[in-house]
From TrEMBL:
GO MF annotation: an example: metal ion binding
The High potential iron-sulfur proteins family profile domain, residue ranges: 33-100
Protein name, UniProt field: High-potential iron sulfur protein 2
Pfam families given in the database record: HIPIP
Protein purpose: Specific class of high-redox-potential 4Fe-4S ferredoxins. Functions in anaerobic electron transport in most purple and in some other photosynthetic bacteria and in at least one genus (Paracoccus) of halophilic, denitrifying bacteria.
Native species: Photobacterium sanctipauli
UniProt xrefs under InterPro entries: High_potential_FeS_prot (IPR000170), HIPIP_sf (IPR036369), TAT_signal (IPR006311), TAT_signal_bac_arc (IPR019546)
Length: 100
């Protein structure tokens, strides 16, 4: 079972990287968080990465993750892992990486 979850995570990660790379070349104007739909916890990719809107650990939140994009202070911001969706700045997922 763990092997299957790892495979799903790797597939979703690779698809996200490809989507971001291709998406950046296609977009004419940059996407703003206000223009993006909010990621739901029911989204298949969110479920695969155990995304939640409220992090169980206040030291590990989307706003201090290296993958978050957009302006500091915004409640909903774009994320490199979930292209085309905005995540809650207080959220968390298993792809969380501390900002350098």
């Amino acid at each position: 079972m763990k092997r299957s979850n790892r495979r799903n995570f790797l597939k979703l990660s690779l698809a996200s990287v490809i989507g971001i790379t291709v998406g950046n070349k296609i977009l004419v104007k940059p996407a703003h968080a206000a223009d993006l739909p909010q990621l739901t916890e029911d989204d298949p990719q969110a479920k695969a990465l155990q995304y939640v809107h409220e992090s169980p650990d206040s030291a590990k939140v989307c706003s201090n993750c290296a993958l978050i994009q957009g302006n500091d202070g915004d409640e909903w911001r774009p994320c490199g892992i979930f292209p085309g969706k905005a995540v809650n700045a207080n959220g968390w997922c298993t792809a969380w990486v501390k900002k350098p």
